[in-house]
């Protein structure tokens, strides 16, 4: 089967299976690069792809400067495509299955208290001086992620009907497309109520979405990216990436540092697999050990 037709058939299958637009774009870009590489090297049929071709492509990506995490993501996409070809009986086995993932140095950035205050104070000054909706929106966006660990896609789709002020919770459609409830603290609830009142005054009524653009339309992936690009330029932090995911990691970091159980952290982060949660907890183990050494109850007992 010609590779270009197989690639199109695979994308059509993902669309039929209701894969998110974000993941489809991801396949189009990352898997498309592999398809182009094969065509450039005169590998035009799916049946002609070998384990060596996959490995050589990943080495090519490495030589271009791709980090281990990116290479592993590309390998995952290639495996998924070739698994689909096995299902369709185009090939008998997946030649990418025996290609090993690269080992990665796991380092997850989190914000310090000083950095968090710097970002929030920046927006406080703007919204206080200019009474700007955009400044208040971006301020509230940071507060919400720090208070719930909500994901970027969930921010975009969040509606006021998803916010339950009475029961102090926010409902979102998570990665598994299940509706999930996230608890809110009283402090976050008060912040959201004040923001809602501001939105009502600014727009004349409360719209459908919690966060909107300047023209009152729904946020997009690109507009979220612009928000954090602007903040990144203003803050000029050298040791941490300014992004919604770093805010989410900071939320998880503080939960772990507080001594919360891995099971409870998994529920709040909404990780499907507790192994993901344990990776975070293990990463911050030294800090937890320091906290334990400092606050352990045995320290004050005469034994």
End-to-end separation: 75 Å
Quantity of strands, as a count: 3
Q: What string, H for helix and E for strand, traces the elements in order? A: HHHHHHHEEEHHHHHH
Please give the largest β-sheet. 3 strands, antiparallel
SSE map:
Elements: H1 3-16, H2 21-40, H3 51-63, H4 68-87, H5 113-130, H6 133-148, H7 152-157, E1 163-164, E2 169-173, E3 179-183, H8 186-203, H9 221-235, H10 244-257, H11 262-269, H12 274-283, H13 285-295
Antiparallel strand pairs: 1-2, 2-3
Helix pairs in contact: 1-2, 2-4, 3-4, 5-6, 6-8, 6-10, 11-12
Description:
The protein has 303 residues and is mainly alpha-helical. It has helices at 3-16, 21-40, 51-63, 68-87, 113-130, 133-148, 152-157, 186-203, 221-235, 244-257, 262-269, 274-283, 285-295; strands at residues 163-164, 169-173, 179-183. A three-stranded antiparallel beta sheet has the order 1-2-3, with no helix packed on it. The radius of gyration is 23 Å and the shape is globular. The model has no long low-confidence stretch (mean pLDDT 87).
């Amino acid at each position: 089967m010609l590779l270009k037709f197989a690639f199109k058939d695979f994308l059509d299958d993902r669309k039929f299976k209701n894969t998110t637009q974000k993941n489809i774009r991801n396949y189009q870009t990352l898997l498309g690069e592999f398809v182009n590489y094969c065509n450039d090297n005169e590998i035009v049929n799916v049946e002609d792809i070998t384990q060596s071709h996959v490995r050589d492509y990943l080495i090519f990506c490495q030589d271009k400067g791709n980090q281990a995490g990116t290479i592993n993501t590309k390998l995952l996409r290639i495996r998924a495509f070739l698994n689909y070809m096995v299902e369709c009986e185009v090939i008998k086995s997946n030649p990418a299955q025996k290609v090993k993932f690269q080992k990665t140095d796991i380092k997850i950035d989190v914000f310090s208290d000083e950095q968090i205050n710097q970002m929030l104070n920046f927006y406080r000054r703007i919204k206080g001086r200019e009474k700007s909706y955009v400044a208040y929106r971006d301020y509230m966006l940071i507060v919400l992620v720090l208070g719930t660990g909500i994901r970027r896609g969930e921010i975009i789709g969040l509606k006021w009907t998803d916010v339950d002020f009475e029961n102090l919770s926010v409902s979102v459609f998570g990665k598994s497309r299940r509706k999930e409830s996230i608890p809110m603290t009283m402090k976050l609830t008060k912040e959201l109520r004040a923001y809602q009142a501001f939105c009502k005054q600014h727009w004349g009524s409360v719209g459908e979405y919690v966060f909107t653009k300047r023209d009152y339309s729904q946020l997009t992936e690109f507009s979220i990216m612009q928000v954090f690009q602007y903040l990144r330029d203003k803050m000029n932090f050298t040791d941490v990436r300014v992004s919604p995911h770093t805010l989410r990691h900071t939320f998880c970091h503080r939960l772990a540092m507080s001594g919360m159980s891995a099971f409870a952290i998994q529920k709040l982060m909404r990780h499907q697999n507790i192994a993901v949660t344990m990776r975070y907890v293990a990463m911050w183990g030294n800090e937890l050990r320091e906290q334990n050494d400092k606050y352990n109850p045995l320290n004050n007992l005469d034994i």
